[in-house]
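Sequence in, structure out.
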Amino acid sequence: MTTYLGRPGQAGRLAIALFLALTFTAVHAQDEETPETDVAAAPSGETFTYQPISTESPRQTLNSFIRLTWLLESAVQTYRAEQTRANYNRIVLLAPRFLQLIDLSGVPRASRRGIGQDTAINMLDIIGRLELPPLSEMPDETAFVDESVEATWRIPGSPIRIVEIGEAPREGEFLFSPRTVDVAPWLYQRIRHRPLRTTLDIESWNDTLRQLHGPMIPLALTTNLPDGLKVRWLDTPVWKILAVVIVFLVGAALLIIWHRFVHRWGARQRVTVPLIHLLSPLAVIVVTLVLRSFVADEIDVAGYFAQAVDVTTTAVIYLAGVWAFWLLVVLVSEWIILSPRIPDTSLDANLLRLSARVVGFIGGVLILAYGAQNVGLPVLGLMAGLGVGGLAVALAIRPTFENLIGGAILYMDRPVRIGDYCSFGAYTGTVENIGVRSTQIRTRDRTLVTVPNANFANMEINNWARCDKMMIRTTIGVRYETSPDQLRYLLSGLRNMCYAHPKIEPETVRIRYIGYGPSSRDIDFRVYALTREWNEFFSIREDVFLRVDDIVAESGTSFAYPSQTLYMGRDDGLDEERSENAEKQVSAWRNSGNLPFPGPTEEQIDKLADTLDFPPLGSQGAYDSQVQTQEAVEPLSAADSDEVVDKERAGESEDKRNPT
């Protein structure tokens, strides 16, 4: 079976889907239910309806393989009679279904098409030559209910086994074991002299399917080729190898012409050059995918040569991916430099280019490692081994390397710049230099502090040069003798002063009475000064605090200070009348079963909801809300309105008689 055992080509998928639907409908209408048939009793030329692959037991797996074999015989016979795309697609459709019966989890991803294809062809020749027992004697779903019994079955007369898969995604299915990949070629050579059970006039599936090709190549042309070109080399006929070489040489020539055209086209600018050059690796990827699909679908190589084609094309695609990734990173870096108009020769521009190339190199290595892993090279394991070998060197240069990375982080992240005033750890000062190994900071006492970049990059750095405004915050404590109205007057005066100050941002004013201190009523004072300079900030804060002193004195109170006041007087005791009323009320609650403990009921909570006034009655906010509430009430009728007017007039007359 030398067809492409992966997904069909893009151009043929629609035709395959349409043909599958028509075939399934026609066959299903003729025979809605086909009973399970014994292998030996299967009549010559019998075809089966299209059914999903069944792998619930060794019996179902082998039966599925036999059914697919009969369908393949019919498809090959039809294609020989009429070389059309639809007939060829029947073979293409059946090809990947054989692979679903073989466990290829141990085969590298890039080689699964060639190795799986070769294994399936050998299995066709092996199953067609072995004397198989009746299906009724093969293990079914109930054979391995007992967990002590090993879930495996060996085909009589061969070392090939059908085993249960224990790992996702095909856990619980019975497939031909991974060892089949190694055993099938050897076993076929041992029994190739036996007759092949088939309805076709062929002696071997290996000889027949490896000569098969797509409808774009005339069948008469390949039939009349010299026998020397039909000889197989690397499990593929020589004429197919020559055809593949010619196809890829033509593709390479087209890519070279395209690459030269792209390099001569377009303006020579830092941004447009990588953008235009990016078309070359993209063209390589597209052309390689198209040619690989053509080789797999039309020329239809197999065996070791198919593995070589798959590995080579996969390597070319990943190399072109590395090329495209490198150009894309360079393009992004140049666009960033051009976007905010960074000077082309500045340190920032050079640092961006260096960073882009580092990212491109690391990304390229990762892409190559992933591609090598797909073609079967244990690159990830090799890299792990090299990492263990280089551990000693890494430990020796670790401090220097950490400082180098720290310096790069300081340049890229830029928590501080040269000339910024900042605080870190126990130091505060101005940044004078950011070097490769360390950062130098001039402190307020004019000493020079040198901090390793690795340590400095990991610190919590407070950059005062980056603040857009500076906060003034303090707690104002006034004496406990201050009355609530005095406190309201004081709060209003403080807020008005801040709103009126030209150097205070009005939106950030937050002055609130926050509670009771040990010896004072506390007011939280927090505003933002509209400045970025320390000297100006200190002068603004000084002016604000002096104005606070005036407002506190004007309110008739004064600042509190830690003190204790001893009041001596005669204790009047408890209010007996109110105490008695409180006890009677609690007793009544208890007797009626309405004691609100541990908490009130939901009904009581609903009755209490919104019964207090806020803002307090008499404040401007409360007045506005009362006016809005009155305006929202439904208008009075004419009669009710006249009655209200009469009552108001009577009230005015009464007020005139009683002016007090």
